[in-house]
Write a structure and sequence with these properties.
By secondary structure, this protein is an alpha/beta fold. It has 13 helices and 9 strands. The longest helix has about 35 residues. It binds ligand LMJFFPRB. Ligand LMJFFPRB binds next to helix 6. Pathway: Lipid metabolism; fatty acid beta-oxidation.
């Protein structure tokens, strides 16, 4: 069942009763979902650059694109529910392992045996900044040790994730671009390594389009549920790049070398249905019932015996671990060179100077 008008109104009241300020990102998200749920897609003229507050509100609402009103209403209710439950769980067990760490680019909640890690930069289509790579690693490490039985990764807004934040290329340290490429290769290897070693069932709830590294690492997840609005795109050649996230190994294994070539070399964008037919996605749901159906299923899975699930994951994955770490190291080292290539620098500059989009 989808959130009713009554659920929506009750969620609006609960927001007023929140004891803790949820922070600007979340408040903007609530505003945007409220406007989308009540008025539909953004219909206001874009405010001027110096009208900071209204520009931020406009950006947040506009970022929801054509998200249907019912989905926005449901997402609003879900977001309020995650805020109220994180307040009440920290009241019930202060200082215990349910305690939530503050993240700038993620919303992490834990309830019903499920830790949910939600990418939370909707105005940037959830592009992964350098800080966000670190936060995702921290959140996964915490989830591996908390008392949840399964861990879910999802996105806030109309995108699941638009991949690496291309602005990461502009933050060059005093050691120069070579030093930046070296540090980035280490960060990438650690980031992907955290997924390879994650001990519990790891599930992706792909709520919208997914790009780049957010797609490649799906090969390291244990199940991938997708809305029929989701697409899967790895435009590495267009960006002068090469695959990461172990996709050079997992994708040919999952879908066969020819289909993997179309995605990883020619940058073919797959619909959710195509990705499911090729084995990258476990199941596709209509967007209108996506959240409801997936979370009902996940809540049931989270009640299965945790040790049995962990051990089964070990049995399924452990034989591959050494190979995956070797592939990860090789992909990261190849990319360290690619980032310094003219092909990559030109493609990135074209995007950042607004001359190109995917
Ligand atoms: C020296 C070496 C340093 C290297 C450091 C890297 C370390 C780790 C690397 C791991 C490797 C990963 C590979 C990849 O992930 S490749 C994929 C990279 N992603 C992209 O190329 C996507 C680029 N974005 C787009 O093409 C489009 O934005 C979109 C996703 C198709 C959406 O288009 P739409 O028209 O709907 O929306 P907007 O373009 O208006 O987006 C809203 C604003 O968000 C900004 N945005 C979106 N995605 C990104 C992104 N990936 N990086 C930076 N910024 C992004 C977009 O520019 C808009 O901003 P604006 O409002 O200011 O215009």
């Amino acid at each position: 069942m989808r959130a009713s008008q009554e659920d929506f109104e009750s969620a609006m009241n609960q927001v007023k009763l929140l004891k803790k300020d949820p922070g600007n990102e979340v408040k903007l998200r609530l505003y945007a979902l409220y406007k989308q749920a009540t008025e539909g897609p953004c219909n206001m003229p874009k405010p001027g650059v110096f009208d900071f507050i209204n520009k931020a509100k406009w950006d947040a609402w506009n970022a929801l694109g054509s998200l249907p009103k019912e989905t926005a209403r449901q997402n609003y209710v879900d977001l309020v529910s995650s805020l109220t439950s994180s307040e009440s769980s920290s009241q019930v067990k202060p200082g215990a392992d349910r305690e939530q760490q503050e993240y700038e680019n993620l919303v992490v909640t834990s309830e019903d045996g499920i830790t949910k890690i939600m990418f939370n930069r909707p105005t940037r289509k959830n592009a992964i900044s350098t800080q966000m790579y670190q936060e995702i690693m921290l959140a996964l490490k915490a989830a591996s040790k908390d008392d949840s039985t399964i861990t879910v990764v999802t996105g806030n807004g109309d995108y699941y994730c638009s991949g690496n934040d291309l602005a990461n290329f502009t933050d060059i340290p005093p050691g120069g671009v070579e030093e930046k490429a070296k540090q980035s290769a280490i960060m990438l290897r650690d980031f992907v390594g955290t997924f390879i070693d994650f001990p519990k069932p790891l599930i992706a709830v792909v709520n919208g389009p997914a790009v780049g590294i957010s797609v490649t690492i799906l090969g390291l997840f244990d199940a991938v549920y997708a809305s029929d609005r989701a697409t899967f795109h790895t435009p590495f050649s267009h960006l002068g790049l090469s695959p990461e996230g172990c996709a050079s190994y997992t994708f040919p294994k999952i879908m066969g070398p020819a289909k993997a070539t179309e995605m990883l070399i020619f940058g073919k964008k797959l619909t959710a249905g195509e990705a499911c037919a090729q084995g990258l996605v476990t199941e596709v749901f209509p967007d209108s019932t996506f959240q409801k159906e997936v979370w009902t299923r996940l809540k049931a899975y989270s009640k299965l015996p945790p040790n049995s699930m962990r051990i089964s994951k070990q049995v399924i994955r452990n034989m591959e671990k050494e190979k995956l770490h070797a592939v990860n190291a090789e992909e990261s080292s190849v990319l360290q060179e690619r980032w310094l290539s003219d092909e990559c620098i030109n493609a990135t500059m074209n995007f950042l100077s607004k001359k190109a989009k995917l």
